[in-house]
Design goal:
Helix content: 25-40%
CATH superfamily of the largest domain: Homing endonucleases
Structural class: alpha+beta
CATH topology of the largest domain: Endonuclease I-creI
Distance between the termini: 29 Å
Number of strands: 8
Bound molecules: zinc ion
Strand order of the largest sheet: 1-2-4-3
Strand content: 15-25%
CATH class of the largest domain: Alpha Beta
CATH architecture of the largest domain: Roll
Number of domains: 2
Length: about 260
């Protein structure tokens, strides 16, 4: 899980960020650009920036039920990750939901799954993501430029495939962007650098079937744990793979 080894001096530390802050010889390593791309895509989806109350640097948390997906990110992040841990068991979530009147909990397609969390180390370069919260809630930044990796990780977090009921044999990609529902022009401009120009209504990005094909060509192969979201052959195959995914890549402690 992650790595406690300082990439500069090669020694292991329980608190690497503290080592970088205090050491005369080592300082915070640079976060590679591909990792920043991953962080951006994850922040568009299930990631959140955790600002320190003190003068400490921010860290990023990624919450997901998909343990395989988080473990893969953990490997990619190396020293930047502190690892993946169980955050809330499915029993805890059931208990919370029972006390909630929110309709969407009642319509869950699958039983509640355990929630995992990946936490990064605190790092001064993560300061650039704090501005996403300038308005008090998370908003995509003005200078955001989509790339295949960014779009792929956003899709893995917040997207899915839908098949229409009336004889539609080709799927369409939908991606939820609830926090951006009032920025229709901004979202349209965001996609100018990509091969698709999806429509955006009610906080939801909707691709045509043609665009869905171009979309998958653009973002490339699935990352571990996300395979079912890339199954476009048929609705039956998608549903089957999705169900298998829930068995293989998520856990529950409910009976
Ligand atoms: Zn060191």
């Amino acid at each position: 899980m992650g790595s406690d080894k300082c990439p500069s001096c090669g020694r292991e530390y329980d608190r690497l960020a503290q080592h970088w802050a205090m050491s005369a010889a080592c300082s915070y390593p640079t976060i590679p650009e591909p990792i920043h791309k991953m962080l951006t895509g994850l922040l568009m989806g299930d990631g959140t920036v955790q600002e320190a109350k003190s003068a400490a640097n921010p860290r990023i948390e990624i919450h997901n039920i998909n343990h395989s997906f988080l473990s893969w990110i953990d490997e990619q992040f190396e020293w930047l990750s502190t690892g993946v841990t169980l955050r809330r068991t499915s029993d805890d979530i059931y208990e919370t939901n029972r006390g909630s009147s929110l309709e969407r909990f009642a319509s869950c397609e699958y039983s509640v799954r355990d929630q995992y969390i990946l936490t990064t180390r605190r790092h001064p370069e993560l300061e650039r993501y704090v501005k996403w919260y300038d308005t008090g809630q998370k908003r995509f930044p003005r200078d955001l430029v989509l790339t295949p990796t960014i779009l792929k990780l956003w899709y893995v977090c917040d997207g899915h495939l839908i098949w229409g009921s009336g004889g539609h044999v080709r799927p369409q990609v939908w991606v939820s962007a609830e926090n951006e529902r009032d920025r229709i022009t901004y979202i349209r401009e965001l996609f100018e650098q990509t091969p698709i120009s999806p429509s955006f209504r009610d906080g939801r990005l909707m691709l045509t079937s043609d665009e869905t094909e171009w979309f998958f060509e653009y973002i490339g192969r699935p990352v571990p744990g996300s395979e079912y979201k890339f199954v476009t052959e048929s609705k039956e195959q998608y549903e089957k793979t999705k169900e298998a995914f829930y068995w293989r890549h998520t856990t529950t402690n409910s009976t």
